[in-house]
Amino acid sequence: MLIAQLIDPDYIRDFDHLSDIVNRAASAGVDLFFFGGSLITANPKFDIVKALKDISDIPVILFPSSPAHIDESADAILFLSLISGRNSEFLIGNHVAAAPILKKSSLEILPTGYILVGCGAATTAQYISNTSPVPYNKPEIAAATALAGEMLGLKLIYLDGGSGAEKPVSPEMVAKVKAWVSTPIIVGGGIKTTKDAAALRDAGADILVIGNGAEKRPEFISELSEIRV
Ligand code: 1GP
């Protein structure tokens, strides 16, 4: 199982702050940085993706909510289709706008079925995408959605409670999706304890995404090295 640390540009105060995060991530063995956010409200004071590439060897994968977030300094992009929703812009519309730009870039394209799950109060991702999440207690809906995504050719499935979710996606849902698809499964949103992380790992998550949990308690990233396999 891999650990991806989400770098939200709104959270980064300055270059020294980013350096601290990178140093901690490197010593904890973080495998990937995801970069992005559903709603970016601040004008970054510096080019964070370029800085990440300059000071770290950890691959940087864009996690965009808009074609405006394409950044050629990164290594790859999650080409996310929001298959839990029925908003055509996030299913295919933004992709049409982004595809010609991506074709000219050197970014690795990672076609990803993105499934938002209701994990407590509505998250920014749900609001901004104007979609209904899969209900928390309906693993079979998540599994059928993931299976349809795999049949459409998507290479990764991302089960996300959304950044700042009150609780993570249930291990039961992850296990059901794991049983139905053969793609790697990314799980994120609301993971704040090693107990949560271990349960999701045991259920079959291939990549865990940690954002708020490490923003609020930076040592959480180091603690996760204990439960990695
Ligand atoms: C959000 O999965 C990521 O898309 C991370 O969520 O910030 O809640 O860890 P958190």
TrEMBL record:
Gene Ontology cellular component terms for the protein in this record: cytoplasm
Catalytic activity: sn-glycerol 1-phosphate + (2E,6E,10E)-geranylgeranyl diphosphate = sn-3-O-(geranylgeranyl)glycerol 1-phosphate + diphosphate
Keywords, in A-Z order: Lipid biosynthesis, Lipid metabolism, Magnesium, Metal-binding, Phospholipid biosynthesis, Phospholipid metabolism, Transferase
Cofactor dependence: Mg(2+)
Transmembrane segments: none
Enzyme class: transferase
Segment forming the signal sequence: none
Residues that coordinate or bind Mg(2+): 8, 38
MF terms in GO: heptaprenylglyceryl phosphate synthase activity; magnesium ion binding; phosphoglycerol geranylgeranyltransferase activity
UniProt EC number: 2.5.1.41
Residues that, per the record, bind sn-glycerol 1-phosphate: 158-164, 189-190, 211-212
GO BP: glycerophospholipid biosynthetic process
Family: Belongs to the GGGP/HepGP synthase family. Group II subfamily.
Function of the protein: Prenyltransferase that catalyzes the transfer of the geranylgeranyl moiety of geranylgeranyl diphosphate (GGPP) to the C3 hydroxyl of sn-glycerol-1-phosphate (G1P).
Protein name per UniProt: Geranylgeranylglyceryl phosphate synthase
Organism per entry: Cryomorpha ignava
